[in-house]
Structure formats: C-alpha cells, structure tokens
User: What shape does this take?
Amino acid sequence: MTAALKQVPLYVLALVLLVFTGYPFLYMVATSFKTQEQFFMDPFSLIGSIQFSNYALAFEKGLAGYFFNSITVTVIAVGFTVLISALASYPLSRMKFRLNKTLFLLFVSGMMLPIHSTLIPIFILTKNMGLIDSVPALFGPYVAFSLPISIFILTQFTSELPREVEEAAEIDGCSHRHIFWNIILPMLTPALATIVIYNFIHIWTEFIFALVLLSSPENMTLPLGMQKFYGELTINVPALMAALTLASLPILLVYFLAQEKIVTGLTGGAVK
Assistant: This one.
C-alpha cells in the first residue's frame, strides 16, 4: 500500500502533463470541424457538429502540393542521411587509422554550427548551381545538417556492438563490405530508427531554409505553405486548424509507429 501511495504524485504529474500537452492538440482537431459561426459563438467548446468543409478548403488552397513537396524532400533527405551516416559510422567505430578521432570530432563539431550563419553562403552556392527556387535546393542543406547528430548516434551505437560476430565473419573470409551490409547494418536497427524519426521530424518542420531558397508557391514545402495559409485564412480559424491538423498527422503517425525504437536507440546508442 505504501509503495502504491508513493506512485500517486507521479500519476498526478503525468495527468497534468497530459492535459497541458494533449488539450491543445484536441482543441485544434475539434476546432477544425467547426464552422466559422460555431467557432465565434463558442470558441472554447470541444463538442459540436462535424463539418469537413474546412479540410476541403485547405486542399483547395494548395495543401496537397505542399504535402507532396514536403514528402519528397523529407524522404530523399532522410534516405541519404541514413545511408551516408551508416557508411561513415562503420569505419569510424570499427577501424583504427590515424585520422579516426579527428574525423569523428570534425563530424560532431557540425552540431555546434549555427544554421543562420550558413544561410547567405548556401543561398549564393545554390544560386550559382542553378537550383534556387526548386525542391532539390533543399536536399543539400537538409542532409548536411542532419549528418552530425546521425553519425554521432550511429558511431556510438556501432562501437558497442560485440566484435565476436565480426571476427567470426572475418575468419570465414567475409570482406568489410559483406560484414557491414549483412551483419552490422541489421544490428543497427534501433539506432537507425532513432535517426530516421529524429531527422523526419526536423526536416518535416524545417522553415528557415525553405523560406530563403524557395519563393514559388508550387515549390513550397508544408511549413512555408502554412505561413501562406496563415496570411490567407487569418480570420477563418477553423480552416487554419484543419490545415494544421493535416500537417501534424505524418509526424504523429511516424512517431507512434517507432516510439519504442526511439527510446532504445537514444539510450543504447547515444550513451557510451
């Protein structure tokens, strides 16, 4: 009984946190189904008639195009990030050479680089490459700024893997290429899930590079498109909430599908 009573404050704290974090999302979803008249008559109610006209209006304003651009950029950038960071983490953690630690510190130092200090150089470089105001203009910056934390997590996780399996494979005549693809990479699943989810959320919600490198509405990603929505639908709050609800669904879906692997990867790979 005493042990159960000790858990009561934790449950109370968890309930309070749930209210503070869950109510805004619940309010956003409930408001998205209201008409403008219902919202102005009772803006704080969570129960009302369900109207899908706000979601139709969001798609009429170009939400589908913003979604497609964001999905394209996110999938390609995350894919390249996972591939490059996995390939880099293997020699950094399993091979001994002169510049091993130097290269690792050089990669990790990228986490301390302020993004805003690179906006002008990246804009000039993108313009000189002829990629300005195009979706591919975002691939380079997104991959580059996702690599440091990804390489750090994968390198630390890989260094903790048992070497016995790798040594047995070397005795059997396996090359480093076969060892990486057939042995090491499958064992990196928790850490790979971590960097996939982390980078997916970061790239999906990234705004500043999209603002600097894109200008045409047909090339805008979802965060930049939401700013345009806010300008057009400032008074139509339910329609704006509908757009925000749709924009948040991919993040929630991806997170709920792999939330356990996120915890496993961070505790197992980021802490040596």
